[in-house]
Records
---
Amino acid sequence: MSRLSPRALNCAPSPTLAITAKANQLKADGHDVLGFGAGEPDFDTPQHIKDAAIDALAKGKTKYTPSAGIPELRKAICEKLKTDNGLDYAPGNVIVSCGGKHTLYNIFQAMVSEGDEVVIPAPYWVSYPEQVKLADGTPVILQTTDETNFAPTIDQLKAAITPKTKIVVLNSPSNPTGAMWPRATIEALAELAIQHDFYVISDEIYEKIVYDANEFISIAALGPEIKKRTFTVNGMSKAYSMTGWRLGYVAAEAEYVGAMNRLQDQSTSNPTSIAQWAGLAALTGDQSFLAEWCTEFDARRKLIVAGLNGIDGLSCLMPEGAFYVFPKVSALYGKTTPEGKTLQSGDDVADYLLATQKVAVVPGSGFGADDYVRLSYATSRATIEKGVARIAEAVAALK
Ligand SMILES: *Cc1c(COP(=O)(O)O)cnc(C)c1O
């Protein structure tokens, strides 16, 4: 009998971190590994943001802050939500936590209890179901495919709602697919939430990385009734390339934010003080680098999609946001590798690519979508070109 808690025993390891560890081991052994696993921008944190942290350090801003974050940052978040998203929130509606992941964790802890269902459209970000389980809730997976551009149909959404539905998770643009939901589907979700009185967690972490004429929508901005039921989640990791700083936040009804504040008081307390000052500089400083990053991501996006679709057996939708592609690989099932292994899953395909061509991709199984793999294009164009060529070679060697 394990002496671990059922909670710990049931908590799955992160598959994205696992593939990164495998790839790093191969690199350490001297192999020329091409990594497409990274879930973070490859750009450095902009200098003015780093300077703000250095300045905070020099000025001794190194002590506890209010658990929910420094008032300056919470005020700046309210201004951001007003300007970018058309949302009116007071600082009492906002809490800053140690990354978007921690923010989501606190929301589930504050809102979910045994018997509550949380609807999670798949392919999903790996942490949602695990965090729901850690809150004793029941994840209800709503499966979508590339046939509907990885968005549920309105009928699918309706069918997933039961009297036990407490929350529906919305992540548009999505990790792992880069897909965005059509406006009509987001509007339908808002109507359903009001009608059935459930909450929506809108994970808006990829808000700033949107291509072409695609429209980013904050569901809370659709009206006061849905705003009351929405947790608008965002953070500094993706838009400002600040993954290591650990800053995320949510805006919601004050009562719920108050509960999250109590949980945070008794667990982590405040996010790192100097990171918060850097976060303030990120939100209030120059934003022009963002357009440059998006232009570069856009070029890589087109390069990788064209490359992958040029390979017989792979099919890849054009992502609308974020920095991932999610090609379907199931046409390769039944083929045999030169080593004599028959491919039967996305996991097999990912293992094969890593073993034979030293190309690290993340199998779709961890995202609730077995027939796909995820590649991040937060890497150089040269790496993308080499990676596509190696994948083509690996696929050509199949019988
Ligand atoms: C990266 C990511 C987050 C948050 O990451 P943090 O570094 O914890 O802020 C949240 N949701 C999705 C979908 C992500 O990809």
---
Amino acid sequence: MTIPETMRPTPKAGVLDIEAYVPGKSAAPAGVAKVHKLSSNENPLGASPAAIEAVRNVAGRLEFYPDGAATRLREAIGAAHGLNPANIVCSNGSDEVIGLLAQAYLAPGDEGIFTEHGFLVYRIYIQAAGAVPVVASETNETADVDAILEKVTPRTKIVFLANPNNPTGTYIPFDEVKRLHAGLPKHVLLVLDAAYAEYVRRNDYEAGIEMVSSYENVVMTRTFSKIHGLGGMRIGWAYCPPHIADVLNRIRGPFNVNAAAIEAGVAAMRDRGHLERTVEHNERWLGWLSEELARLGLRVTPSVGNFVLIHFPEDRVHSAAAADDYLTARGFILRRVAGYGFPNALRMTVGTEEANRGVVAALTEFLKN
Ligand SMILES: *Cc1c(COP(=O)(O)O)cnc(C)c1O
């Protein structure tokens, strides 16, 4: 017998419209000798050895609460980036701080804008706040400033821009970000999600630090999950104008960043060498992968991140789904991106040399059949 819905707790309007986030797979079929996880944009070099050591050292004092203000972590971030730690708010992954911004600035009926192939976490948090997700179309799989500005209404409260974006790997130059900001009403919050900023090697790119310092309505979010190789630790941060840092500090969990994460983050921030080696590795293999995949006749969206979006032929035998099955059976786990509006593409994280060469070799065989 089912109990009528009115007799049990029901979530507020909008919650049941949310489609839960589907993370990248991590398992291959039994019997595969070696698994290469290339589905979540993790660092193929792993975490900084200093961060690993720092986490080991925390193990002996797990009974103690962490510093709720994550002071040392904010200081380490501030020192590395030349920022005032008072304007930094740390979080349990940058997903958390993105959610807190939505929760704080979107009321039911308000609108939050993101782009056509934008990071899906924005939609989830906009809906969780009871607000309306508004999608701006892209041009050439790239955010389009005019299309975003056209979507602004009196109900718009937030614009989320991943720059570079995931899963496309495309970016818009700083001039375009400034043009977007200039076109927004001053009460609209512009969130610049710079999760992949460290990977970008372009003179016309800026993550957004200067804009946050100059305006009251811009926030930049960053993560330790990608270049720092600390996805499992869940550490993100936002650089904000003081009035926004104040808001976030009121609504965040009092101990939202755990003790191991704080120590790992401090050590990772200080390890410039590991970051530079990661950037070098990525530069080399991003270029190699883009060329080799193009040589196979596959279209690759031009990426400035640590991943590539690979488009497959329309025929059923060589579709993205077929390629995914073929690669998975050989231990190469890529990311399906149908939910991002790419039913016939796969996203591949730039991996180790072995993984990159292995995927290209496997796809060469796959396309021959
Ligand atoms: C991976 C990613 C994040 C970071 O997520 P965390 O919660 O910090 O692990 C944020 N934004 C984008 C666009 C991403 O791809």
---
Amino acid sequence: MKKRDTMAGAALLAAAAVAFVVCSSASAAGDGQTRRRCPALLPAVYVFGDSLVDVGNNDFLPPPAPRAGFPCGIDLPRGTPGRRTGRFTNGYNLADFIAQRVGFNMSPPAYLSLTPQVSLDLLSGRVGANYASGGSGILDNTGNGTITLREQIKLFANTKASMTKTELGHNRVNRLLSRSLFLISTAGNDFSTFSHGKATMSDYIANLVSTYLKHIKILYNLGARRLGLLDAVPIGSLPGIRASLVNDGACDDVANSFAQQFNALLRLEMASATAAAMPGMEYSIASIYNIISDMISNPPLDGLEEVASACCGGGKLNAEFICSATSNLCTNRSQYVFWDNVHETQAAYRRAVAAMFDSTAAAMYTEPISFHQLVTRKQVGLGAGIDLEHSLADRAAEI
Ligand SMILES: *[C@@H]1O[C@H](CO)[C@@H](O)[C@H](O)[C@H]1NC(C)=O
Ligand SMILES: *[C@@H]1O[C@H](CO)[C@@H](O)[C@H](O)[C@H]1NC(C)=O
């Protein structure tokens, strides 16, 4: 265990170092790193799920949908659309860093924020959109007032219907979609919907996974062929859970074991469903669970020093109260794993995405292929990939 932790920490560190030299289109990440601009590898990114990837849809929803108000976004570069609102962290989130890895400035815009101008990009199959909604989960009754995963996928189906009405036509739309990245982060919030007494946790988890796979199959039927999934976070290690009266600062191992059960079953079911019913689907599952757990168990190695307390909040572990404009806010935000009681900082998200893409770490944290392989592999049977290979060669020459 110790050995694995050390290796994992070293891999994370290596990945984080690499992240600063590869080309990426983030011109200003608020951390003084300069990056090179490079062409997008993919036509578009379509994002679904929860607050780990929401970039502002919830700003358009009435309560009780959770909103990310100030000081969220405090470290986003000036001029970022929707700066200081929308993202449930201090800066960029996982959707932003993943989109940067494939050549965009940040996540595609929040679907509910779209202006006619930006919709033109979306309708031409370029850039994409972010349908994610903080607080949502796999189940329809998770996240009261949020856009559920089912509704997010319906919104995407509407988008696709509008795309096919343009001069692009059905075939070209399908080709563009097949090359685009579909990213989903979900499940974390579903664990708070579980109520004891109705079903066992194992039954609940089995239902979560089978419902999730139904949603994924709908996306497949709509044309998704490159799917990146982020598994369930170590819910029992989140500061808000640790700070609760029963846990008294310690990680909740039972809660973590539920997330682990879900994650293991997701891998099994995804592999068999792909083999049985989703030919041509390329997917990668990134273990955000292991990435965050390893960050927590290797503070010195991963370059993040504060792994238990939240940066923004109050009370025990600065996480008994939610983050708000009047909260206690840390100044050394790049040293914290956790931004608030349940979300990570941009510093943690950046390292996490490096671990999904860069070979040494990705071999440990992604399966069956890395996110890099997911977005660069030549796709079979779609006639796609030719111009992709070309742009990769350009990219290699540029680095
Ligand atoms: C959802 O939120 C609405 C509005 O706050 C509230 O009236 C309703 O009772 C909530 N439903 C559930 C199931 O919590
Ligand atoms: C962050 O800064 C605070 C206040 O200066 C300090 O108490 C704390 O130890 C620092 N945390 C880290 C992780 O360096």
---
Amino acid sequence: MTDRQVLLRRLPAVDRLLNTPPLSELAGSHAHAQLRTAAQRAVDALRQHLLADGEPLPDLTPEAVARLAAEYLHALETPSLRRVLNLTGTVLHTNLGRAPLAESVLQAVVEVSRGYSTLEYDLAEGKRGERHVHVEELLCRLTGAEAALAVNNNAGAVLLALSALAGGKSALVSRGELIEIGGSFRIPEIMAAGGVRLVEVGATNKTHFDDYRKAIGPDTALILKVHTSNYRILGFTSAVTGEELAALGTERGVPVLEDLGSGLLLDLAQLGLPREPTVRETLATGIDVVTFSGDKLLGGPQAGLIVGKQEIVARLKKHPLARALRLDKMTLAALEATLRLYLDPQRALREVPTLRLLAISAGELQRRCQELLPQLQAAAGNRAELDIVATTATVGGGAMPLAELPGFAVAVTPRHSSLQQLTEHLRHGDPPVIGRVQDDRLLLDPRTLLPGEDALLVKALEQALT
Ligand SMILES: *Cc1c(COP(=O)(O)O)cnc(C)c1O
């Protein structure tokens, strides 16, 4: 018998583990079957480990194996989708869930989801109603549109609009707008998925009015304009304006769709951000239908918003994809409550977290860093060197890619461990903390540290360094 085979026989029995702390101490709060499964998993994992040649030999005492089983049980009970502290400074971090929601919005979600609701019930008539009424009028008021529809996300909104307006026919798109957004959303591919033939017009850097005019044929069902949200072509460039495309569409009887991507309801130049046309301004050019995201600069839940002419939106509402991509009650509640905040623009600027975080000034961030530094330094002791550095943050979510938000961050340089160990320990904390690594140190940017999270950060840093 080899050494490893001898060791296999030393693996403690599951029944023994159930009587060994710390697993035995969990008997009061867990079902016997749960404890048994965890113990079995620990034994199985160690058996695999022993059979794999070259692995260092594990500790096989009952206490060590029972500890492993208790860890499995804990991991099993930790939710997979959970809160993290975002210290990256990126306001719309797609991987960290994009827009945080306002308090009144969360209340609306809880209120509507705890019990029954008017999701598809018309109280005035006492009969079946339609779910999109909850946001349609608000969207029309906020954008000046004749009609509106909300679906699962903006990728879905574009797919629906393309399928309903140009399925089986062709659509014109400028070569400079055949973009890829993160997560494999590519205009040519989404068109193929919608059964739309892509007719490319112009060149990568320049597309002229005449390119569109000449490309229109009997098969043309749509002109698509796409906001190149996450990249810019600089230098020798030209593009055709929304006004020109809308006029061409009207003249030739071809609808014009603009995918705005982020979609603003307010002009954020007042926050020092780059000037971008709002949804209202885009519709005012005469474009027939505009799509945009709910959880980018709007600061609401994930959703795809479609606004435009009555007759066009009616065609979209009737398409089978509208049913497939429809919103659930929780998202509708969150979207309606977010849109309500915009009825008073000042209130939106105060209460929509995305707008509030974008508006934080460099001076305010410097004060936040000065406030956090002594607390973080006390938590770190002599295990890390901390100081305040000037830095810039990004908007994120593919919105305003060139915008730089000036600010300050606390830079952490660990003294006894590597930077990689520190970021890893922070990621495994409770709650996990995600920062930004730059110039061989970890930056903790307080722009995206939300109210009430300071103490959690301090504790997490202390634990990560011990
Ligand atoms: C972000 C974006 C999308 C995708 O929107 P989601 O809401 O993430 O599905 C589509 N088009 C453009 C131009 C975008 O910027």
